[in-house]
Amino acid sequence: MSTSPVPVNLSDKLAQFSELWSQKKVAELNDYEVKLAKLKGEFVWHSHEGTDELFLVISGRLTIQLRDGDVVLEPGELFVVPRGVEHCPVADEETAILLFEPAGTINTGDAGGPMTRAAENFG
């Protein structure tokens, strides 16, 4: 017995959690994960030596601090942080984002520390 395909409703998924800086995996594409997260405050400076990282703002406003200047994202805007580029996400208000990155990517990259968390399956 097969199940029929079901689209992922991002608004519904976002309404199901309130934890900040906790990535929720909502889909997989080849060797990549599509993740949702809610952010508020400042994360940690880090880089991902082996992969680029895509940030898409769904609601709120996200500043991605880079060593050579900040990138500010409004809802509907995305930015790709190139592999190896040190960055620090900051959200002055609660912000919902979609991340697209290879499966198993550590959220704190090379920095580690207390904010390191594995993505939770949320599909």
Automatic annotation (TrEMBL):
Residues 41-96 form the Cupin type-2 domain. SUPFAM superfamilies: RmlC-like cupins. It comes from the Bacteria. This is Cupin domain-containing protein. It comes from Streptomyces cyaneofuscatus.
